[in-house]
Structures are given as structure tokens and as C-alpha cells.
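quick one before i forget lol
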Amino acid sequence: MSNYTLWLIAEQFNQSNVDRFKQLVADGRLAHIGYCLPSGRTGDFKTTDQALAWIAEGKNVYADVGFNNNESVLL
């Protein structure tokens, strides 16, 4: 885990914001990258490549996004 003090829980990522997802991965700002099952439970991805494959298929991926105290949380 990183030194972020604020975490946005389960921001949704899809094809429309895949570039943001990739940048957050590169910056080490994502934790618990997963997806929502039909039963409502969340599964985890072992790799970001799996998450990107789901995004490419038009499915939603969710992740916790880290922020520090000097940043505003903007979606």
C-alpha cells in the first residue's frame, strides 16, 4: 500500500475513462482492483492486464483510488 491518506472506495472504470485507469496504475494509486459479480460480490483481478481486458470488453472495473490531503477528489 502507498502513503495516501484518503481513499475513494470503488471508483468505476470503463472504456470512457480507461486512460485515467492506466495513469492511476502507473502512478501506483490503485488498490483492490476488482469487478462486480451478478450476485453482488466483488472479485479481484490478479493483474491489471485482466482488468484492462474486461474494460475492453465493455465491462465495468472498480478500484480504490488513493489521494493525499492536498488533492481534491474529482471524478
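fyi The chain has one domain: 6-67.
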